[in-house]
Amino acid sequence: MKKLLFQFDTDSHPSVFDTVVGYDGGADHVIGHGGLTPENITSLVEGTIFTRAPKDKKNTAIFIGGSDMMAGQQLLTAVQSCFFSGFQVSVMLDSNGSNTTAAAAVAKLAASGTLAGKKAVVLAGTGPVGQRAATLLALEGADVSLTARTLIRATNACANMKARFGVTITPIEAFDNNDRAHAIKDAQIVLATGAAGVELLTLEQWQDNPTLEMIADANATPPIGIGGTDMMDKGIVRHGKIIWGAIGFGTLKLALHRACIAHLFTDNKHVLDAENIYALAKDMA
Question: What's 210's domain CATH number?
């Protein structure tokens, strides 16, 4: 029986990246639908749950993507609300690669040193990857702060994470590089998740920081987020700090994404979100 992955995207056009990884993860067919909302999802979900016998439902799965994390979270809730006893399929949420990218980055940091009790700062963290990474660091016991160019954006992001995961993260307004350098002054861990091609810190702003132990940068588009690092860095030491670049932990991200897709087809009751995707990442790191 064919393994069918239905790609439910909150953007107008389903992500090509997610389509490719869906096939690489073991799906025989990936069927993409764009522009989906909680209001128009019901009939599509019903099509996935009513068409195959109970023993065969594991061969149908749903992947939720798109650029908007909150929209994806709402879509996941709407999809699950359509399920009932004996009629459900496995589903995965990874809006903008947020769960798999954040899980890979934090898993590599966790493999490089202790996270619990450390002060961690997520720079430019209001996007999907930043929010999920901040959450995972907090769940590991780190004291986490998150920066944004405006305090209201940082505060709203922290409130979203508190509502979804019960974690407390401190919002910080950091308009420019100097503000961000001040934000990491006493930090042991820094994770940059800013927009592509935007440098968040220069080399001079972190190389002599005496408390800093580990850095990860999720940006692979030059100039990358943390000056003086390299996107290919795989836990190498620069200026006494352990560095992970976007490609350095990106190998794990891609392997994790594929492994999650394969896992969907092992049963019809899996729900893959940040926590269990991260658990898998730690096993693979």
Answer: 3.40.50.720
